[in-house]
Amino acid sequence: MSAEVKGPASYFPSIEKKYGRPITEWKDLIRSSPLTKHMELVNWLKSEHGLGHGHANALVAHTLAEDGGR
């Protein structure tokens, strides 16, 4: 029995399906952005890449957590 994925990563399968890009590509975009604040990055993903708020928020939260908050 596999462990249930929780938190921001639980959105990843639907993000990949809806937007057609792998999560690693989204994380690379976030990391390459000159923006550093959580909501700046969320709003950027929404306006420039057409992501919904929940998906953008999940990607940013997970990426920043991996990177120690940048």
Unreliable stretches (pLDDT < 50, length at least 5) are: none
Find the count of extended strands (DSSP E, 2+ residues): 0
**Share of helical residues:** 55-70%
Note the run of SSEs as H and E.
Answer: HHHH
Kindly report the average pLDDT value: 92
Q: How far apart are the first and last residues' alpha carbons, in Å?
A: 35 Å
Shape: globular
Computed CA radius of gyration, to the nearest angstrom: 12 Å
Secondary structure tally, helices: 4
Question: What structural class should be given to the helix and strand makeup?
Answer: mainly alpha
The share of residues in extended strands comes to under 5%
| Main pleated-sheet profile | none
How would you portray this structure in words?
It is a single chain. This protein is an all-alpha fold. The protein is built from four helices and no strands. It is globular. The mean pLDDT is 92.
Short description:
The protein is an all-alpha fold. It is built from 4 helices and no strands.
Keywords:
70 residues, mainly alpha, single chain
List the SSEs and their pairings:
Layout: H1 12-19, H2 23-32, H3 38-49, H4 53-66
Helix pairs in contact: 3-4
